[in-house]
Amino acid sequence: xxxxxxxxxxxxxxxxxxxxxxxxxxxxxxxxxxxxxxxxxxxxxxxxxxxxxxxxxxxxxxxxxxxxxxxxxxxxxxxxxxxxxxxxxxxxxxxxxxxxxxxxxxxxxxxxxxxxxxxxxxxxxxxxxxxxxxxxxxxxxxxxxxxxxxxxxxxxxxxxxxxxxxxxxxxxxxxxxxxxxxxxxxxxxxxxxxxxxxxxxxxxxxxxxxxxxxxxxxxxxxxxxxxxxxxxxxxxxxxxxxxxxxxxxxxxxxxxxxxxxxxxxxxxxxxx
Length: 272
Description:
Blueprint: E1 10-15, H1 22-34, E2 38-43, H2 48-57, E3 62-65, E4 79-80, H3 82-87, E5 92-96, E6 99-103, H4 105-116, E7 125-128, H5 132-143, E8 149-152, H6 156-166, E9 169-171, E10 181-184, H7 203-208, E11 211-214, H8 223-230, E12 234-236, H9 238-254, H10 260-271
């Protein structure tokens, strides 16, 4: 049984421009299931430096970082794990006796998803996007040995920079480009509608692919995912990503690895 909240309770938190409920529900459910004296709360801020200072000053154990703070928080930290240093992007802060260390569990989650799904590094891919999460996904693909890829991004400067840093090609539009795996790392499809403009890739590209990977977590059943399922394609959803990255955060904060069943129940509860 989880102890009642008291002076020894460890606080974990998140900072985001638009706080959601998934992290709070996921972590707090696991604290309860495992009897851990922790509590998790989501926050937003207009003063990032003060918020990060508060993590140190109040001995807050850990903090999840979302946009637009993933890069801006870096100068305020004491050190970076390799995952964050390589990407220049932080989504997790761990406080060890006042030393704030940044991590990127998005990157770790993508690497593990590729491994768990048995996707061969010989698989060609098209990745749509050029933002912070796109950088995490592209870097995970590169570091997992995927050599045949194209970054599709309308922002030429960001797209070329990402493609060059990972050794991939760049195109402004997907056009007639086809590949075995299609990866959406843009907000396209977040509305969850049925309109064709909400498809991250056109129907011809989906039909020619073997695997559809969409990092959009809410809703996880985007038009792209639904179209891929209807064509019998293998699908990896943003729900898979958000659970794995949150689990990595949980382990960093607590040092405890929940069972697969406990994680499944926490994820179901968090989505409820």
